[in-house]
């Protein structure tokens, strides 16, 4: 079978061909439902969606736009879950008819604040022939927005660097934003990464404290007024007036979806950077480890190792104990050392003489609670300016680390390095064995084995499993598998694992080569290791995120459909999912077999 053709005798599904249409495609024998869309009611009393009449009040009770991470946390009764979605960002130009970039109206700004954050929605499949349905207004349903109070916890909570006029304690923050990917913890909570938090702040030129200035620059905060004009309606977004408000975003947040009245937490022990997400592994001794990526060019891979041990059971005391595990522990950044001679890593992407991009690595400790391991920085400074700490520790600058997550069956850790078109450019870092391609447009997937298979270990070995891109190019590598039999994949972003030993990869290529993004499956071991197969594609302009791979269902977030240059509400580039002349709406879709058969893991696609 040729790449992308459905002719391969795959045991689980025939790969779908690449697509460029304004539609979702799934394999023969499968179908999908739209579970929930931007604007659908989440809370009791919320109105139905009205694109032309959006208000803060309506959006506060509706599903937000541009959902990224998706978690399904099972309820105790069979067939019901709490779905948690991240609403990463607002694109005002496409969201609001009549948005005025010269002077956004207060209602548009306030509606945006209500659109950010997260949703908790009950999903039920006990009726309607086993189809999943999102239920509006269950007792668990919740919207978290830029107004929801969060508790800062961990070693830097209360630090002077986190205090503002509105919060002299440095322990209570209003809202979360730029929530990208995340993780579902073994204790039933959801972690979410605050990623591009610099975007809405204004006037980074105004603070005078040298460390604050260095931090704003290192994290990419911009000078001058902001395009979004948030600072006009809330002074906390004006860094000249509240320089520390910037420090109160860029954290991993934890939400307990089972308790809609719970106060969500921002975890300072996990460091502050442009968090893609955080995923949990449990060590043999019960300590928990959070793997994390900082998604920007030349940023780092991190992990956190807890001091405490996880308690089994879902009683209230165990839950309370486990929700404190991320409050104290050690924060590390990763250093990757290649084993091939530097001259063999020439930037072309062709394999070195030993046949693999591989080597050894170290987790470099940055801080343990009140103790800093970085000279010249206090522990508070390490936690608030973690990027600067990792710079000084000598961590390895990577090609945009997105999801970092362990396969629960083997404990092996996989890091999606989505791309980096600056690698090897003038004045920029050149290729190294862990990031071996110049102008890395297609990204790669790194596989990491902790020493003695213990996730708390400070040493590891690693190799690149996939060097993505055109299978016919000598600069791509599909774990040594016959590249004439794979689906081409570009820009890996979010990862998930099924019970049969396959990894699922959602892509964010921005439509590279005219091919829509999608979800791919690849076996991790055995003779099929490296055989990437395209499972679904999503509409043009959309990014595929948040895959959930269950026993009989696959959920993905279809983020920002129709977001292409020059699109406007008057001239939308997509009408998905409602068709006709509708505006595009981000959504969660659920894929299942047409015959409704839900026996066996991973849609029975195991190899
Ligand atoms: Fe929001 Fe790293 O993608
Ligand atoms: Ca090598
Ligand atoms: Ca992402
Ligand atoms: Ca991305």
Automatic annotation (TrEMBL):
Residues 1-24, 419-441, 563-582 are annotated as: Disordered. Signal peptide: none annotated. This is PhoX family phosphatase.
């Amino acid at each position: 079978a040729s790449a992308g053709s459905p002719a391969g005798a795959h045991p689980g599904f025939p790969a779908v061909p690449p697509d460029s249409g304004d539609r979702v495609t799934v394999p023969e024998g499968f179908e999908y439902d739209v579970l929930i869309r931007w604007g659908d009611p989440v809370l009791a009393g919320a109105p139905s969606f009205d694109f032309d009449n959006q208000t803060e009040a309506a959006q506060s009770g509706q599903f937000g736009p541009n959902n990224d991470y998706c978690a399904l946390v099972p309820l105790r009764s069979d067939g019901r879950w709490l779905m948690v979605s991240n609403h990463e960002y607002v694109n005002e130009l496409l969201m609001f008819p009549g948005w005025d970039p010269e002077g956004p109206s207060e209602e548009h700004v306030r509606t945006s604040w209500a659109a950010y954050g997260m949703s908790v929605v009950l999903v039920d499949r006990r009726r309607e022939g086993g189809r999943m349905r999102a239920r509006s207004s269950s007792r668990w349903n919740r919207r978290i927005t830029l107004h929801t109070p969060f508790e800062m916890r961990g070693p830097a909570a209360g630090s002077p660097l986190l205090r503002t006029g509105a919060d002299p304690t440095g322990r209570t923050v209003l809202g979360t934003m730029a929530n990208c990917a995340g993780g579902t913890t073994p204790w039933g909570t959801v972690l979410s990464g605050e990623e591009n938090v610099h975007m809405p702040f204004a006037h980074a030129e105004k603070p005078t404290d040298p460390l604050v200035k260095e931090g704003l620059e290192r994290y990419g905060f911009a000078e001058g007024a902001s395009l979004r004009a948030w600072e006009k309606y809330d002074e906390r977004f004006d860094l000249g007036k509240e320089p520390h408000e910037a420090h109160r975003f860029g954290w991993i947040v934890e939400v307990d979806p089972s308790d809609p009245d719970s106060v969500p937490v921002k975890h300072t022990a996990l460091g502050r950077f442009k968090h893609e997400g955080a995923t949990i592994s449990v060590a043999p001794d019960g300590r928990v480890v959070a793997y994390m990526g900082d998604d920007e060019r030349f940023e780092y891979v991190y992990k956190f190792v807890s001091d405490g041990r996880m308690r089994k059971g879902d009683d209230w005391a165990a839950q309370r104990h486990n929700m404190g595990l991320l409050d104290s522990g050690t924060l590390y950044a990763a250093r990757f050392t290649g084993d091939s001679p530097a001259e063999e890593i020439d930037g072309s992407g062709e394999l070195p003489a030993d046949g693999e991009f591989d080597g050894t690595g170290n987790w470099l400790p940055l801080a343990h609670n009140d103790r800093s391991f970085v000279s010249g920085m206090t522990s508070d400074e390490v936690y608030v300016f973690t990027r600067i700490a990792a710079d000084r520790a000598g961590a390895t600058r990577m090609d945009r680390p997105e999801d970092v997550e362990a396969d629960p069956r083997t404990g092996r850790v996989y890091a999606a390095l989505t791309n980096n078109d600056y690698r090897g450019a003038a004045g920029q870092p050149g290729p190294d064995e862990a990031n071996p391609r110049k102008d890395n447009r297609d990204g790669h997937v790194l596989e990491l084995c902790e020493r003695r298979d213990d996730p708390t270990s400070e040493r590891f070995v690693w190799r690149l499993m996939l060097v993505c891109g055109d299978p016919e190019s000598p600069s791509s590598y599909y774990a040594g598998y016959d590249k004439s039999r794979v689906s081409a994949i570009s820009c890996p972003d979010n990862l998930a694992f099924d019970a049969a030993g396959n990894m699922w990869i959602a892509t964010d290529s921005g439509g590279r080569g005219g091919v829509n993004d999608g979800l791919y499956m690849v076996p991790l071991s055995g003779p099929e290791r490296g055989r990437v197969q395209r499972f679904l594609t999503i509409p043009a302009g959309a990014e595929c995120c948040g895959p959930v791979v269950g026993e009989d269902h696959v959920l993905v977030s279809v983020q920002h459909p129709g977001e292409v240059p020059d699109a406007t509400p008057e001239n939308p580039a997509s009408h998905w999912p409602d068709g006709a002349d509708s505006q595009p709406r981000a959504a969660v879709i659920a894929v299942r077999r047409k015959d409704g058969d839900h026996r066996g893991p991973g849609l029975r696609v195991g190899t």
